[in-house]
Amino acid sequence: MAVITAGAKPALRTMPGPAVESAPELARRILVSLVSSRGRLYTHANFSGAAACPLTYGMLSMTAASSASDIRAPAKNGYAGRALLASALGYAMDGFDLLILGFMLPVIAADLHLTSTQAGSLVTWTLIGAVAGGLIFGVLSDYFGRVRMLTWTILLFAAFTGLCALAQGYTDLLVYRTIAGIGLGGEFGIGMALVAEAWPASQRARASSYVGLGWQAGVLAAALLTPLLLPVIGWRGMFALGLLPAAVSFFVRRRVEEPALFNERVARGMRKLPFKLLVVDGRTTRASIGVAILCSVQNFGYYGLMIWLPSYLSQTFGYSLTKSGIWTAATILGMASGIWLFGVAADRFGRKPTFLFYQAGAVVMVFVYAHLSTPMALLIGGAAMGVFVNGMIGGYGALISELYPTDARATAQNVLFNVGRAVGGFGPVVVGALAARYSFGAALALLASIYLLDIFATLFLIPERRGAELE
Asked: How far, in Å, CA of 400 to CA of 208, rounded?
C-alpha cells in the first residue's frame, strides 16, 4: 500500500526490464554507475519516477508500451548531472559556513566581547533561521519550482553571510546569522527534491548521497582552510568568502531546468496544500513523526559533536588549532565515506536495514570514542565514528522523496529535516553544559544514547520504500 494517495495517477507507465545507460562521458558513467536494486512499487500504480528532462520524458512516454525500461534513465544532455551538481554545491556552501563558525567562535567572542552563551547562540539561531527557511522555501518550491527557489536560497544565504563580515556587535551579527540561516535551510530540501525527481528509482539513494557528500566537502574544506586563512584574513575575511556562492546561483539559473515530473504536475493543475499531505492519514502521519525523529537525532548528534570536537581535542589533549583541524578532518573523511556507502547500501538492501545498521554503529562508536586517549586511536576512532554518525545523511533525500508526492516533496524534505535542525541546534548547548558539569568525554558518552530513539523510530514508524517510483 502506498504511504500517500496523491490525486491523479501519473500518465507515464513503463514495463519492467533492463535499465538504460545514457551517459557517454567517463565522469558521468562513474557518477551514474548503476546499483542493481529493484524494490516493490506502489500496488496501485507501477509508474515511472522522476524524468531526467522534458525531452527524455516525452521519448519515454511515446515508447512506454514497447520499451523494456523500469526506471527513467539520466538524460543524455547531462540534465541529471547538472541537477546533482547544483544541489551538491549549494549544500557544500552550507557545510563550509557552519563549520567555520564553529572554528571561529572563540576568536569572534574575544573580538566582540561575547559571553559563551552568546557565542553558542549564534549557532542555535542560525539553525532556527534554517527551520524558518525550510518552511518558507519548501512550500514555495512546491508551488513555483525547484530551480527558481534554489537560486533565491543561495543568493539570500550568500548575501547575509557576507554581511556578517561587517558586524559590530552581538545583535547585528545575530540578525545576519539568522537570516543567512533562512537561506541555508531552504537549500537542502529543494536540492534533494530536485535530485530525486531527476534520477531513476534504482539509483535514487546513491544520487541523494552525493548531495550529502557536498556538505562533507564543504566541512572538510573548512577544517583544512580555516587554520590557514583565519590568522591571515581574520574572521571577517572568512565571512566575506560567503559571497562566493552568488556565482553558483548564476549557474543554477542558466544551466538547470525544472524536472519533468514537476512540470507534469503543473500541467495537471495540481495545487494541493503541501502541509496537509504530510499528515493526510494515519500511516503518513506516523511516517512523518518517524522521519522527524530521525532528522532530530541526526542533527543533534552531528552538531553536538562537530561544534565542540575542536575544543574537545584542544582542551583535553592540548592540540593546536592546526592539529585539531587535522583530527577533525579525519572524522569528516569518515563521514564522507559513510554517506557514500549508505547510498550504495540503501539502493542494494533497502532503506530501513541500512538505517538500522548505521544507528547501531553510532551508539557503539560515539561511546567508544569518548574513552579513547592516544593520538592514533583518536584519529582512527574519529573516522570510524564519522561513518556512522553522519553517514545517515546519505539516505534522507531518497527516503523522504519516496514517502510524499510531488505536491509536497520539497515541503516534506525541508520541514522534516529542518525540524531536526532546530532540535539539533540545542546539541551544542547540551553538550557544552554536560561538558562544563562533568567532562567532554562524559558528554560524548551520554550523546550515544540518543541513537536508541532513532532505532525505535525506524523499526516502528517508517515503512520500507526502496524501488518505489515517485508520484
From this structure: 11
